[in-house]
TrEMBL record:
<protein>
    <submittedName>
        <fullName>Diketogulonate reductase-like aldo/keto reductase</fullName>
    </submittedName>
</protein>
<keyword id="KW-0560">Oxidoreductase</keyword>
<comment type="similarity">
    <text>Belongs to the aldo/keto reductase family.</text>
</comment>
<dbReference type="InterPro" id="IPR036812">
    <property type="entry name" value="NAD(P)_OxRdtase_dom_sf"/>
</dbReference>
<dbReference type="InterPro" id="IPR023210">
    <property type="entry name" value="NADP_OxRdtase_dom"/>
</dbReference>
<keyword id="KW-0521">NADP</keyword>
<dbReference type="InterPro" id="IPR020471">
    <property type="entry name" value="AKR"/>
</dbReference>
<dbReference type="Pfam" id="PF00248">
    <property type="entry name" value="Aldo_ket_red"/>
</dbReference>
<feature type="domain" description="NADP-dependent oxidoreductase">
    <location>
        <begin position="22"/>
        <end position="266"/>
    </location>
</feature>
<dbReference type="InterPro" id="IPR018170">
    <property type="entry name" value="Aldo/ket_reductase_CS"/>
</dbReference>
<dbReference type="InterPro" id="IPR044500">
    <property type="entry name" value="AKR5G"/>
</dbReference>
Length: 280
């Protein structure tokens, strides 16, 4: 069980990823994302998750560069994730997409490169490109996002490398139990995007009541629930006080009863698209 914001979990290729990071989906390019990244790193975060599709990689890169200097950190002390967008999937186009992302981020490599969505007829070819990027050292680990079990099984046919991680929508209303069990068997780390169901979860009475017991917010309870389930989590915020509060979850532990009560809230309810039915 992680005891500190900078604690890590070992992926199936030996690379260590922090249990907790900052997501920057919908964080505006420019000052907003630069400041978010700098605030997070200054307050002890070491993992930043972006994507080509977020259109804020340049700002993330600027935030990283300034934070490294201001906090006297080395590049290798950070864990940076980005993702290949659907329109860039395919072999050559994926190789080029990472070059573009690296240029924008101002980095020589990323720690984790992910396929953003399982684009039918494309993702296996895209995976071949990720395997090459991994061998070339441009990505220290490779993985996928939004892959169901059947996508992972299909990908396994004819590929050399098992994804290190599967980043999926996951929160108490969408607990992804079957997928989590499958990934655990295959050694694929689960990471939660939208861990707070885009804010819906903080209104939940069960979660609020559990928070009251510990003097914690509903958001803190859910993020703690992620960690106790062995789920890497990347909540997004642009407000410094929220960035700090989100990470203030290492001084309490949910009981088995608390965890079970939160598990029981599952409704298989998505805030984002279903990976079997998206049109972008």
């Amino acid at each position: 069980m992680p005891a500190h914001l900078q604690d890590t979990v070992k992926l199936n290729n030996g690379v260590h990823i922090p249990w907790f990071g900052l997501g920057v989906w919908k964080v505006k390019e420019g000052d907003e994302v630069v400041l978010s990244v700098k605030n997070a790193i200054r307050h002890g975060y070491r993992s930043i998750d972006t994507a080509a599709a977020y259109q804020n990689e340049e700002g993330v890169g600027q935030g990283i560069a300034e934070a490294l200097q201001e906090n006297n950190l080395k590049r290798e002390e950070l864990f940076i994730t980005t993702k290949v967008w659907n329109a860039d999937q395919g072999y050559e186009s994926t190789l080029q997409a990472l070059e573009t992302s690296l240029t924008k981020l101002g980095l020589d490599y990323v720690d984790l490169y992910l396929i953003h969505w399982p684009v039918k007829g494309k993702y296996k070819e895209t995976w071949k490109a990720l395997e090459q990027l991994y061998k070339d050292g441009k990505a220290k680990a490779i993985g996928v996002c939004n892959f169901h079990v059947h996508h992972l099984e299909d990908l396994a046919e004819g590929s050399e490398i098992t994804p290190a991680l599967n980043q999926v929508e996951l929160h108490p209303y969408l607990t992804q139990q079957e997928l989590r069990e499958y990934c655990a068997k295959k050694g694929i780390q689960i990471e939660a995007w939208s861990p707070l169901a885009q804010g819906k979860i903080v209104e939940d009475k069960t979660i609020q009541a559990i928070g009251d017991k510990y003097g914690k917010s509903a958001a803190q309870v859910v993020l703690r629930w992620d960690l106790q389930h062995g789920i890497v989590t990347i909540p997004k915020s642009v407000r410094e006080e929220r960035i700090v509060a989100n990470a203030d979850i290492f001084d309490f532990e949910l009981t088995a009863e608390d965890v079970a009560a939160i598990d029981a809230l599952n409704q298989d309810e998505r805030t984002g698209p279903d990976p079997d039915n998206f049109n972008f």
